[in-house]
Amino acid sequence: MVIIVNRFDPFRDLTLLQDRINRLFDDSMVRHERQPSPNEAWVPMVDITEDENEIVLWVDLPGVSQKEVDIIINGDQLTLKGEKKFDQTNQRKYLRRERLVGPFSRTFQLNLPVETEEISAAYRNGVLEIHLPKPAESKPRKVSIQTE
C-alpha cells in the first residue's frame, strides 16, 4: 500500500493567480498603450547631497537645452523651472513613446542659509549640477576644551 502525502501550500494557488493576472494585464497593455501628449508635464529626477561645505543637486534633464532652464534662489528656497520641448518637425509614427515633454518646475526648501553669490551650476551630458556653498558661520566647527 502506497500513501501519497501532498504538502499543503497556501501560497501556491495565490502565486498562480497573480501570474495569470499579470499576464492578462501585460497582454492588454500592449494593445492599449497610453501615449503621452506633447504638452504633458513631467518632473525631472533630482539627487541632493550635503557635506560640511555645501549642498549639491544633480538634476536629470536629458534632451533639455540649458537655455530652457532657470535656477531661482529666494531666501532658503531653490526653484528650477524649464521646459523640454517636443520636436514638432519630427513627423514619425511612434510605435512606443514614453519620454515626456513639456514644462517643469521643482522647488526645494533648503532649511539653511547659502552663499547666494557663490552658487555655481554646470550642465554636462544631460545632468545639471548645482553647488550651493554654506556660509562660514553655518559650518560646524570644533570647540576645544580648556583645562584648568
3D architecture notes:
There is one protein chain. With 148 residues, the chain is of the alpha+beta class. It has a domain of 84 residues: Immunoglobulin-like, CATH 2.60.40. Helix content is 15%, strand content 31%. The strands form 2 sheets. It has a 4-stranded antiparallel beta sheet, with no helix packed on it. Strands 3-4-5 form a 3-stranded antiparallel beta sheet, with no helix packed on it. β1 and β2 form a beta hairpin. The longest helix is centred in the first third of the chain and has 22 residues. The protein starts with 9 loop residues before the first helix and ends in a 15-residue tail after the last strand. The mean pLDDT is 81.
Provide key terms for this protein:
148 residues; alpha+beta; 3-stranded antiparallel sheet
CATH topology of the domain at 46-88 and 98-138: Immunoglobulin-like
In terms of per-residue confidence, which ranges show pLDDT below 50 for 5 or more consecutive residues?
Answer: none
The radius of gyration computed from the alpha-carbon positions, rounded to a whole number of angstroms, is 26 Å
Gross morphology: flat
Amino- and carboxy-terminal Cα gap: 92 Å
- Which structural category do the helix and sheet elements fall into? alpha+beta
Strand order of the largest sheet: 1-2-7-6
Number of helices: 1
